[in-house]
Design brief:
This protein is α/β, with parallel strands linked by helices. Helix content is 37%, strand content 18%. The chain has eight helices and eight strands.
């Protein structure tokens, strides 16, 4: 005959029904979180817009500047290395970093600005929580730093702006309030932009300092700020790539010339 004491001890070693249910719930939640994380990672890699080959090749062949990978970012510098102003540039969502090299190249060669193009985690700037120093460390000789970004990258640039000497928005706007920051701010937009529209920029205008400079580039669409092809929901650009590059270079160079240093 079984010992009643042994049976009681065995029952006491079994998890209670409540504990079993809790374990199932916890494991289920962890499983769902794991599936969600994997799903986000996969989604972030699907539909990434690559750099167009010809503009990038022209940058690589330009003897006036150097282009290299450094600390996980793409760094463009004047060929002679003489630069005391830099700009950290945050790409738009799911746009390859090198897709911006050609549009920023003349800023490097003509205005002696070092440009560090970040590679956001998961190709999405809002997942990348690194501080500005994670990118400025790629060019330690530069003393004065702008931070800028295109589209969603500009939203992230606003969050990093408190550690910079100025902010440049490329077809973007802030979600953070910088109205009392005293920062020099340049907001560049396109008249044919179907994504970052004039209304959206106007709605977010109170978040910028009162003396921020806003420049609308005639004929520029959202995709005109890089070289990665067309984009769903965007307008049709009527500006040429050389004219777009010249407009960007002139506006940013004017801000650079006005920076105290």
């Amino acid at each position: 005959m079984a010992d009643p004491a042994d049976a009681t001890a065995a029952r006491s070693r079994r998890p209670s029904r409540g504990r079993r249910i809790l374990r199932v719930v916890v494991l289920s939640v962890l499983g769902l979180l794991a599936i969600a994380v994997v799903g986000v990672v996969i989604w972030s890699q699907v539909g990434v817009m690559p750099a167009e080959a010809e503009p990038l090749a022209a940058v690589e062949a330009d003897s006036r500047l150097s282009l290299e990978e450094r600390d996980g970012s793409l760094v463009l510098e004047p060929a002679d290395g003489g630069s005391d102003v830099g700009m950290v540039f945050i790409p738009g969502a799911k746009v390859e970093a090198s897709a911006y090299a050609a549009k920023l190249a003349d800023l490097v060669s003509a205005a002696d600005v070092t440009v560090v193009i970040a590679r956001p985690w998961l190709n999405l700037a809002f997942f990348d929580l690194r501080p500005l120093s994670a990118f400025t460390d790629a060019a330690p000789a530069v003393d004065t730093w702008l931070v800028g970004g295109h589209s969603l990258g500009g939203v992230r640039a606003c969050q990093l702006a408190e550690d910079a000497d100025g902010l440049v928005l490329f077809a973007s706007y802030c979600a953070a309030d910088l109205s009392a920051s005293g920062l020099p701010v340049l907001s560049l937009s396109g008249s044919a932009d179907g994504l970052t529209t004039a209304d959206k920029i106007a709605d977010a205008r109170p978040l910028l300092p009162a003396d921020a400079t806003l420049v609308e580039i005639p004929g520029a669409a959202h995709s005109s700020f890089g070289d990665y092809g067309s984009q769903a929901g965007d307008g049709t650009p009527t500006i040429s790539d050389p004219d777009m590059t010249a407009a960007l270079t002139a506006s940013v160079a004017e801000l650079v010339a006005a920076l105290p240093r």
